[in-house]
Amino acid sequence: MLTIDHLGRREGRLQILDDVSFTWPKGLLAVIGGNGSGKTTLLRVVAGAKAPNAGKAEWNGVSTARAARRKGVMGYGPQERNLDLAITLREFLTLCCDLRGLSGRGQKVAAVADELGLSKQLDERLANLSGGGRRKAMTAQAMLGDPELIVLDEPTSEVDYAASRRFWAAFKTRGETAALIVATHDVELALSVADALLLLRRGQPLKLGQPTDFTLEELSAAIADY
Amino acid sequence: MGAFTLSRLIWLEASRRPRALFATIMLALSAGFLILPDPGAGYATLTFHGAPLVYTPAVMGFITGGEFTAFSGALGVLAMTVVAPMAAWRVVYGVANAPAWRIALGGWIAAFGVGMFLLTAIFLGALVRAWSVLAAGGDPLSGLMIFASWAYGMGVAGAGISATIYAILSMRLSTKPGWFMAATFVAWMFIVSSSISPSVDLSGQYFAGPLLFPNMHGLILGMGIEAGLAHHAAVVTRTLGDLFTTPGGAAFFGRRVTIAGIGLAATLLLSGPRLLPLVPRVRTGWSVSKLGAAISAGFGLTGVIFRQLWSKRFLILAALIGAVVFEALHTNDRVGAMALGFAWGLVMLRWPDLCEAFEQGALRTLIAPSVLGPWPIRVNLYLQITLQAAVLALPLILAFAAAGRTNALAWLAIQITAAPLLCVALARLRGGATIFALLSMMWWYLLVSGNLPPPAG
Lengths: 226, 457
What we know:
- The complex is a heterodimer.
- By secondary structure, chain A is an alpha/beta fold.
- Chain A has helices at 39-46, 64-67, 89-99, 105-116, 131-142, 161-174, 187-193, 216-224, and strands at residues 2-11, 14-24, 27-32, 54-59, 62-63, 74-77, 149-153, 179-183, 196-201, 204-209.
- A 6-stranded mixed β-sheet of chain A has the order 6-7-8-3-9-10, sandwiched between helices.
- In chain A, a hairpin with a 2-residue loop joins β4 (54-59) and β5 (62-63).
- Chain B has helices at 2-15, 18-35, 57-83, 86-96, 100-129, 132-135, 140-173, 177-200, 205-212, 249-269, 288-297, 300-310, 313-329, 334-349, 351-360, 374-392, 394-403, 406-426, 432-448; strands spanning 44-48, 51-54, 221-225, 235-236.
- In chain B, α2 packs antiparallel against α3 (57-83), α12 packs across α16 (374-392) and α14 (334-349) packs antiparallel against α17 (394-403).
- Chain A binds chain B through residues 11-14, 16, 44, 47-50, 68-69, 74, 76-78, 80-87, 91-92, 94-96, 98-101, 125, 138, 141-142, and chain B through 1-2, 5-6, 9, 12-13, 16-17, 85, 87-89, 91-92, 94-98, 102-103, 274, 276-279, 282-285.
């Protein structure tokens, strides 16, 4: 269970997150909001990459920063995609398995590649992948080894439409056994696939509910007014 | 497991960057050439107390391994930054979410391997230069064994130290090349050269010196110009076998392996907390940086280039000047220490750019295409590097001025104006980075060896 309780995060004089509270046990939660609404900062705190200035972020009663250090608990796909390396996607994913101490790396790499439709790209060098390809690589490493909590920051930006649909289908399937927090601008896909949506505006949660609780017009208006 | 995979992939990454790899090999080979000039050549030779030195395989090995060890901290880190793009690896470390010791171990193994590879390239460079020495005793294979045992027996400690510096620093500073280079310099200059080296005989002179050189009064090896040595008789060294059969040699080698082992242990102990994924800092409010940006924006292209060159480099210069002052206070040859610091600075000023340029193939990346054409940028670049070099040389300028040494001041002014000119001129050439690095290293060795002292008067 992910517990976000009165979470606040300030960067200098800028209050990026303010009094964010929600819980998420399992399933696919899409975080929606305009540019600068606080999505990325929220996900960084959830992934344990940043500490909150106020409130708490916990996974099963343990701070997310500590939970991230436990084997097999968390997978995080950040926005950063500076993967200008000559190693192949397969080598990259194998390395991630090894560094995390995951066994059966061959099967795990093959499984995640199959799940996300990356099997044909496994032997491509990271430096030769397009922007979308590197984004896929980041998403794939986050989903290695069935982590309990998967945090993905805009995993389908720069990714083509067909691959985006496949990714969201994979997220939905993973959501049956794990908790997924996915920040996205793919509002229509999120509405049709996600189990719930969290709408952020100016660092505060505007609304958390099932997709049927939202309309496309309502989301568009909120995003435009970030 | 993860550490070995990481080190293997770093090596694989390096092998897939042939241009960078080639440039690194060329640098190391040239270092071998430089530290071991052909004893039969008419223009230069290695000297001992200012007199030409007669080589034996053991002397060759002692010089090769000793010189590599002396400069391994800087050489190893430079090679790793060239052949492995650190910022991209840092991203991988962040998302891999592995214990820091595992990543540090992987980095250490990779850097140690690269260090030994560099030593091999230097070894081969020296071998090509003076192969006839091995055959002089009538048994080339035996000569080769002696040469190799001394070179690698000496060099293993340097490879360990360079791996330690790289593994500890690169994890935390890989996305900050300016800080990384400054920290490398400080670690190499203060910790290794000033503190560790004398206490553990890192250069090997206390063990090998008395065995090899008769009448040794402080080991002073240099690269002498033949013309200046016409009146000196050649120094004949004692003939020794390989390191392991030399009395005390095995224990000496054991101590050097132990130094490498201690470096590995220090790496694991100092690996620090787990690396978090990279998160860019959000800066709000006013800062010196923002103020600088606002001012420089008013000066258009000149302002932008000025800020680009001075943002982080200034900190490196501060570290360099600090190191030069420290060295100058702890040596009898203060001007020599300042000159050496200045030579170092000239190399290091463009170091981060060189690393990137190696990957891109040439320094041309510095001369970004501009609607104004390349010349305004080149002129700006030239002026900025000259300015930085002048700041770096300030202690030396003051020392010369105080002593009234006008010739030396002119000598310095030529260097300050020539080096940036060379940098900008080579920027137009493919492979210019390699040539610049080679020339810089040659210049550096000349000053290090005491072969190019400031002119008198």
